[in-house]
Write a structure and sequence with these properties.
Elements: H1 2-16, H2 19-41, H3 48-61, H4 83-88, H5 97-126, H6 131-142, H7 146-154, H8 158-173, H9 187-195, H10 201-208, H11 212-232, H12 234-242, H13 262-269, H14 276-299, H15 303-317, H16 330-342, H17 345-361, H18 377-381, H19 384-395, E1 401-402, E2 408-409
Antiparallel strand pairs: 1-2
Helix pairs in contact: 2-6, 5-6, 5-8, 5-16, 8-9, 9-11, 10-11, 11-12, 14-15, 15-16, 15-19, 16-17
């Protein structure tokens, strides 16, 4: 009976509605489901961090004191970003609160859509799917992802920084962008680093990937923006680099359950006396493994997977990685989607299981159930997102790369067949006297 009803419903859905109406109906139904999920499970933070930014900038701009002197009323939290970030936020001094909230939402949504388009768009085109429909489905599913929804509810800037870093790689650094006329690769990563120090690890990634000009450009841009801030706001710069930067109490307690970094895990073992030596060993080991994997990927021409792994490593080695900071995992999740869609057979099943498990865990709020229980099973539960990040760092598969003999290989794996339903590739024979061109970066870059 149930099967009959299901078949009849599917038949009516296909026959009664034209294709566009079916897509719109699907988006509406999915959107309602997402809304119900968020209404039931998402935390409401009332744009807490955005209120800190807003209050600090207005306090500073209106001459009430330095930006780092401001504390949100009845809290110990103040502005924690470098002075250049404060300069970029100066429009808040004249904008009403509702406008600031609206800009935060719209900018974060547009930035996420762009990252989704850049990383998953080639696979959507290869499979012949409607781009607008696929992107809308992706955005609705991303809204459930806990780091993203926490970022939006806090009013954080992390999604905008992810946008800057991914835009730099896709538009300015990747070697197959022949239209480039100016050596601007690294500029956006440098600006992101000047706004918040965490993206500085991507400058190291450019070095590991042997994109030396882009690495120098990023470093010079970050330094130039910092010097500009020193010139325009000398008092704020002096206070940040000599005092506020070193005051860990401004960001919160390191053992707090939301800190899903190695530092947070070590601090939860002994909140009163965390083992700094153990933390240092874990950080060095993580960076060594990250450098080894990303170097191999870069040699194979796979810069995007290396960038995604750099975002994963950033969360692990940073002293403070709140759950909303884990939005840096988003590029890895999106690339895992493309790998799963392009794989075949058992490999596709394995990647889909990995994707669903990772996405489900990072949307579940599981760690919060162990907020005050750090031993026994609580040792695993309180560090669940950290463990998932480690698994992603190790298991995220590399991109298929065309070798000179026409076979496809993936960093760290055997040959992989990649279905492409709409593109037939005809390879021109290479004369013996002609040197083959550099390897073609895989099907994500037609």
């Amino acid at each position: 009976m149930v099967e009959t009803i299901r078949s009849a419903t599917a038949f009516w859905f296909r026959r009664a509605l034209p294709p566009r109406a079916r897509r719109v109906t699907t988006l509406v139904v999915l959107g309602v489901g997402v809304f119900i999920f968020l209404a039931a499970f998402a935390m409401r933070h009332g744009f807490f961090d955005l209120k800190v930014y807003y209050g600090a900038i207005r306090y500073w701009a209106h001459g009430d004191g330095e930006v780092y002197d401001y504390l949100k009323p009845n809290t110990k939290y103040g502005f924690t970003y470098p002075p250049f970030a404060a300069l970029t936020m100066l429009p808040m001094a004249v904008l009403p609160w509702i406008a600031v909230v609206t800009i935060s939402w719209v900018a974060s949504g547009a930035a996420t859509a762009a990252v989704l388009y850049w990383l998953v768009g080639p696979t959507i085109r290869a499979r012949g799917w409607r781009m607008w429909f696929s992107l809308c489905v992706g955005l609705e599913l991303i809204a459930i992802f806990e780091p993203f929804r926490e970022t939006i509810n806090f009013g954080q800037v992390n999604v905008l920084l992810v946008f800057l870093v991914v835009a730099d790689l896709v538009l300015l650094v990747e070697p197959d962008r022949r239209w480039r006329t100016l050596p601007l690769g690294g500029v956006l990563i440098g600006l992101a680093t000047a706004i918040k120090l965490t993206p500085g690890i991507f400058i190291l990634y450019l070095l590991v990937a042997r994109r030396f000009r882009a690495a120098v450009t990023a470093a010079v841009t970050a330094a130039g923006a910092t010097v500009l801030a020193m010139a325009l706001a000398p008092n704020a710069s002096r206070e940040f680099w000599t005092s506020a930067f070193w005051d860990t109490d401004r960001v919160g307690t390191l053992s707090f359950i939301s800190n899903q970094s190695w530092q947070g895990a070590v601090s939860r073992l002994d909140p009163a006396h965390p083992n700094r030596g153990l933390w240092a060993v874990l950080v060095v080991a993580t960076l060594a493994f990250w450098a080894w994997r990303t170097h191999r990927l870069a040699r194979a021409g796979d810069l995007r997977t290396g960038l995604a792994l750099t975002g994963v490593a950033a969360g692990l080695v940073s002293p403070v990685t709140w759950v909303h900071h884990l939005v840096w995992l988003l590029p890895a999740v999106l690339l895992l989607v493309t790998r799963a869609l392009r794989a075949t057979g058992r490999r596709r099943v394995a990647l889909i299981v990995f994707l669903v498990a990772f996405y489900g865990l990072l949307s579940s709020r599981l760690v919060w159930y162990f907020a005050f229980y750090f031993h026994g099973w609580g040792l695993l539960g309180s560090n669940a997102y950290l463990i998932a990040s480690v698994v992603m760092l190790v298991l995220l598969p590399g991109q298929r790369v065309e070798s000179r003999d026409g076979t496809g290989t993936v960093e760290g794996s055997a040959q992989e067949q990649v279905p492409d339903r709409n593109i037939k590739r005809v390879r021109r024979p290479v004369p013996a006297e002609e040197k083959p061109a550099r390897p073609l970066v895989g099907l994500d870059h037609p």
